[in-house]
Design goal:
5 helices
């Protein structure tokens, strides 16, 4: 059985490998643009300094600072756009893998095992499943015992379940949807995809 932690580690290692390659390429492009731009600006500065050394040196310094600021702004914008696209592509691929996993026999075994941990509790439970798992409802309710009822909800798309503990007024969220959202948050905080 694949645990939530193992699944998260798998996602993180795959995400890190893809991210590092794309970040290295983006940084190489930024360096080339910066070197080419600095060369053009320096050539212009030398010509202007020869004609009007005092006045033009000050003017060129100001223009250089503005140009570099624009270059940095543009590079920053491009890198942020690239980062966003990379993250979207990556998590779309993960979502597709989860959708495939949902069709696998291991998924049914996993959800049955997780439900078994809450079997025969002495409290009122509501088991929430997504539409794709409606066929599992009867089997899972029989595991939970006679104080459990079932409910099909629209916000569980990728799979898993939510168990509402009525007496305690709280819910246990074991959905793949929530796991993907949490994995994305963790990835964005720990991936080291930063602007250099």
């Amino acid at each position: 059985m694949i645990t939530k932690e193992e699944l998260l580690k798998c996602f993180q290692s795959e995400i890190t490998a893809i991210s590092e390659a794309e970040i290295a390429e983006a940084q190489r492009e930024m360096k080339e643009i910066r070197l080419r731009t600095e060369q053009e600006i320096n050539e212009g500065a030398q010509e202007a300094a020869r004609l009007w050394f005092e006045q033009e040196a000050q003017d060129l310094s100001a223009r250089h600072a503005v140009a570099m600021s624009h270059i940095n702004d543009e590079n920053h914008r491009r890198l942020m756009t690239e980062r966003s696209l990379m993250v979207e592509e990556l998590f779309e691929a993960v979502k597709q893998q989860l959708m495939q996993f949902h069709k696998d026999k291991q998924y049914q075994e996993l959800i049955t095992k997780k439900i078994s941990a809450y079997a025969n509790r002495d409290e009122t439970l509501v088991l929430q499943l997504g539409h794709d798992d409606e066929a599992l409802m009867k089997q899972l309710l029989s595991i939970l015992g006679n104080r459990a009822t079932g409910e099909i909800v629209d916000d569980i798309v990728l799979g898993g379940f939510r168990l509402v503990l009525k007496d305690k007024e709280r819910a246990i969220d074991e959905t793949l949807d929530s796991a993907l959202i949490e994995a994305r948050k963790d990835f964005l905080q720990t991936s080291a995809l930063t602007i250099a």
